[in-house]
Amino acid sequence: MMANHPTDKQIQDAYATAKERYATLDVDTDQALNTLAQISISLHCWQGDDVRGFESPEAGLGGGLAATGNYPGKARNAEELRRDLDKAYSLIPGRHRLNLHAIYAETGGRKVERNELRPEHFANWVDWARENGHGIDFNPTCFSHPLAGSGFTLASYDEGIRNFWIEHCIACRKIGEHFGRELGTPCVTNIWIPDGFKDIPVDRKTPRLLLKDSLDKILAEKIDPRYNLDSVESKLFGIGSESYVVGSYEFYLGYAIANHILLCLDSGHFHPTEVISDKLSSILAFLDEVLLHVSRGVRWDSDHVVILSDELQALAQEIIRGGFLDRVHIGLDYFDASINRVAAWVIGARNVLRALLMALLEPLDQLRELEVTGDYTRRLALLEELKGLPSGAVWDYFCLQQGVPVGFSFMDEIRAYEEQELSKRI
Ligand code: RNT
Ligand code: ZN
């Protein structure tokens, strides 16, 4: 299918009309776009190679994670992954971050144990990030490893196993600090562990106390928050940990508040009808900052590509309406191996930005006024009316302004990249 794309003039005219239309509601579209241009999304490197990494990609994915599909062209090494990321960033308006995992270390073919990883193993990533203006966020990889084979890491009953993963997490915080120092923007280092039981445990308490103790050891050394911010990510269940997950929401919420660190909310890590949008205003009453793993669960934590769903819009509205932009770190977390992986990044990231734009285009003062004065009829009517306003024209103009393809035309670039690059990877 050859799509006809709108001309620049058509985009500009549509924007001028949209701007006037929003002005009737006292919404300043230029201001919304200025704010949007400042927002950085952290793109998860692991969408590019189905969470394999470079350590032993043949070994298979552990931790109860699953990337299904066999679309050709996944990145097989760091050069390919960076090339794919470059392509993705070039199709997303704005300047964005990279979310790296420890298994993406480049050790020059030498086996380096995870507890011995150092900043030098990420030198190429730092150089690339500096050249391209990306901040980096980081994650210890506490899965896909023989010492995670039992399903337990930081909460293992085996002290040796616990210590290995404690050392790994400490090493990762230092690498995060290095990223922050080198790139001039703090790295959020996020700990997620798979620990849990497939079947009903007898003792739910002890693993949690062990995890608490491990985290205390990991965080014992203070690191300047200008360089590294610590975060912990909760989960409800995983494959192989259906009955009990040590690092539950309540556990980490408590831990984060007690220790003044960040909490990571992954949209796929709750009961299927439970949403993270409603949690932000509660959590941020007690925590300074949170990290989001924006994902999409379909019936379970399936990590589908993020679409412009009602929940994504609700999440964006909570961030904007609450004035939380500088306290919420927005990252993506999904892995779909059944479609073009570069497009998967682009589609998800563009959707997050679109949701934020729609939230930025709300006549917030008016809506608040209606709520405070108890005029819930007008509140409902106005909220519904807003859905039909031309936010798409504002979005198109933003893409034009930022020098990235407008609308569906980004898929032309994806197709060309697939022909020139991805299809050659056999
Ligand atoms: C797993 C967590 C975690 C991972 C990444 C790869 O359920 O969501 O964030 O997806 O660390
Ligand atoms: Zn996650």
Question: Topology of this structure?
Answer:
Layout: H1 8-23, H2 29-37, E1 41-44, H3 78-90, E2 97-101, H4 123-132, E3 136-139, H5 159-183, E4 187-191, E5 196-197, H6 205-218, E6 228-233, E7 244-245, H7 249-259, E8 262-266, H8 280-283, E9 290-294, H9 310-321, E10 328-332, H10 341-360, H11 364-372, H12 376-386, H13 391-401, H14 410-420
Parallel strand pairs: 1-2, 1-10, 2-3, 4-6, 6-8, 8-9, 9-10
Antiparallel strand pairs: 5-7
Helix pairs in contact: 1-13, 2-10, 3-10, 5-6, 9-10, 11-12
The structure holds L-rhamnitol and zinc ion.
Zinc ion is lined by residues 192, 233, 266, 293, 333.
Please name the defining characteristics of this protein.
single chain; alpha/beta; TIM Barrel; two-stranded antiparallel sheet; 14 helices; 10 strands; 41% helix; globular; binds zinc ion
Description:
This protein has 426 residues and is α/β, with parallel strands linked by helices. The protein has a single domain (40-356), classed as Alpha-Beta Barrel (TIM Barrel), CATH 3.20.20. The chain is 41% helix and 10% strand. The protein has helices spanning 8-23, 29-37, 78-90, 123-132, 159-183, 205-218, 249-259, 280-283, 310-321, 341-360, 364-372, 376-386, 391-401, 410-420; strands at 41-44, 97-101, 136-139, 187-191, 196-197, 228-233, 244-245, 262-266, 290-294, 328-332. The chain has an eight-stranded parallel sheet with strand order 3-2-1-10-9-8-6-4. It has a two-stranded antiparallel sheet with strand order 5-7. Helix 9 crosses helix 10 (341-360). The longest helix has 25 residues, at 159-183. The relative contact order is 0.15. The structure holds L-rhamnitol and zinc ion.
